[in-house]
């Protein structure tokens, strides 16, 4: 099975993530999209990060009605910070029957040459790249036959904006799936 791996903090998972995953599962040759919840991103601050099990739960709630989506906690028991190359190697060993591909935004492609073992990731897996607003395409240093650009809506939705909106008691009704909103309210997250 060809599986797209969509890595993220998902702090919280929002409509932008779900739209991208839906396009990848529906309009490419990917048969499933796995949301890989990263416990600690080496490029992000952890000061506002919810516990990984709470973020995993929100992903599970958000994708419960889509059989093409799966939530993954594979990085929870791996060394931290998590490096995509290590996770890809682990998943390939554990699931040799699957063909894993990496889903990233153009904003990540700009800095992809700084990722651990990026050449190996390209050669052995490949990238499905979705467009991001305000990306200067001339700064993309990596060109490779295993990079596929996928046309998808450009939704500039920020988890920081969502967290701040919740903290300031503003509506996030159309930014998050209803079960995620209910979970955040029940747990009193981001206030």
Structure description:
With 191 residues, the chain is an alpha/beta fold. It is 35% helix and 16% strand. Strands 3-2-1-4-5-6 form a six-stranded parallel sheet, sandwiched between helices. Helix 1 links the parallel strand 1 (2-8) and strand 2. Helix 2 packs antiparallel against helix 7 (178-187). The longest helix has 13 residues, at 15-27. It is globular, with a radius of gyration of 16 Å. The model has no long low-confidence stretch (mean pLDDT 93).
Furnish the topology, listing elements before pairings.
Blueprint: E1 2-8, H1 15-27, E2 32-37, H2 52-63, E3 69-72, H3 84-94, E4 99-105, H4 106-110, H5 118-124, E5 127-130, E6 147-149, H6 159-167, H7 178-187
Parallel strand pairs: 1-2, 1-4, 2-3, 4-5, 5-6
What characteristic shape results from the CA principal axes?
globular
Strand content: 15-25%
The structure class reads: alpha/beta
Spatial gap, N to C terminus: 41 Å
Detail the poorly predicted runs. Answer: none
Keywords:
6 strands, globular, 16% strand, 191 residues, 7 helices, 6-stranded parallel beta sheet
Write a brief caption for the model.
Helix content is 35%, strand content 16%.
């Amino acid at each position: 099975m060809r599986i797209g791996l969509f890595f993220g903090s998902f702090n919280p998972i929002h409509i932008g993530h779900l739209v991208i995953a839906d396009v990848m599962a529906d309009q490419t040759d990917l048969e499933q999209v796995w949301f890989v919840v990263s416990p600690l991103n080496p490029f992000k601050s952890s000061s506002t990060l919810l516990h990984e099990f709470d973020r995993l739960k929100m992903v599970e709630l958000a994708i419960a009605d889509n059989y093409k989506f799966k939530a993954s906690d594979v990085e929870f028991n791996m060394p931290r910070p998590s490096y995509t190359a290590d996770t890809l190697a682990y998943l390939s060993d554990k699931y040799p029957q699957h063909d894993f591909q990496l889903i990233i935004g153009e904003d990540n492609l700009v800095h992809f040459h700084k990722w651990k073992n990026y050449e190996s990731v390209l050669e052995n897996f490949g990238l499905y790249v979705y467009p991001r607003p305000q990306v200067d395409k001339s700064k993309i240093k990596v060109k490779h036959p295993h990079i596929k650009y996928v046309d998808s809506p450009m939704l500039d939705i920020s988890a920081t904006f969502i967290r701040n909106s919740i903290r300031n008691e503003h509506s996030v009704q159309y930014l998050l799936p209803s079960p995620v909103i209910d979970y955040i309210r029940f747990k009193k997250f981001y206030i």
